[in-house]
Write a structure and sequence with these properties.
Layout (H helix, E strand, L loop, with lengths): L1 H16 L4 H13 L3 H13 L5 H13 L3 H14 L4 H13 L3 H14 L4 H14 L2 H14 L4 H13 L3 H14 L4 H13 L3 H14 L3 H18 L5 E6 L2 H12 L4 H8 L21 H8 L10 E3 L2 E7 L2
Antiparallel strand pairs: 1-3, 2-3
Helix pairs in contact: 1-2, 2-3, 3-4, 4-5, 5-6, 6-7, 6-8, 7-8, 8-9, 8-10, 9-10, 10-11, 11-12, 12-13, 13-14
Length: 332
Amino acid sequence: MMLHNLLVALVILAARAGAADLLRLAETAEALADQGRLSEAISAYEQALAVGAGSAKILNRLAGLYLQTEQLEKGGALLRRSLAENPAQAQVCFELAKVFQVLDQPDSALVYARRAQELEPGSSGIAVMVGAIHLQAGHSALAKVAFSHALDLDPQNPEAHRFLGVYYTEGDSLAQAIAEFRRVTELLPEDLEAHNNIAFLLARRGQYPEALAAYQQAESLAKDPRLRQAVRANREAVEAVMGGKMRARYILVDTQARAAEVVAKHKAGEDFAGLAARFSKAPNAQDGGDTGFFSPGELLPDFEKAVQGLQVGQTCAPMVLPMGVVIIHRLN
């Protein structure tokens, strides 16, 4: 149907412009696109534009190919040309909002998302987009309003529940976030992301048996080997915690003065793992100072005692051990 509409548009243009090769170029471009030869398809459509093709349909098709090949600026430029040709295109406004969202330009993204919403006020999907852009821009309250509006329009919209889960996670309302992600799994039972998010949040709340079950469910859904390995690593981390194991990072330096320098950099916002890679003289420096999981009795008693005295995410003051001055950061 898309090819038919494009060809009809080009036939009309060809008749008007006297450009007999427009139809041939469109047929060639679509054949190339069907074969996955996107660069060549783009070239054929660019030739069609050069000889007079300029309808919204043609512009949208070439813009789509640009976006497919991650040429966002070119795709966005053609979508804007398409809107100049025909302003009443909600889907084009929606696509432009997504382009500016990826380019991290939320103000421009909101302009087009709101225009799409004006054209299709009953669209729950567009309302979710508006909320997502507000969330990206740090407008949390407006994001919540948009997501709630999306659910008023369609209570079964899983993306509205998903983004509400993100909203509540950012606000540290973990129970509400879990409830929203559970709603996603009710609507989309095989949604790996939602199951993984539930597991992560349960672990943050210290509900380890429930987190372990959720990670096992997520692992069973993971088809990509890399994703499966990532979920498995999280599941094993929960199992380690349940088994009484600890995990930390540490930086080993020679002097109190160097330790004070490292602590100052960490307090100023520098990542502990990055500081370990730069300053630590320990063998695990390039691993960010990661100890891996260890059970009581496996490391130096003073080191373990220091870890046990820290809250998760807390860093201790420099301490002197037989191998040098150590700064410890607890991971679990």
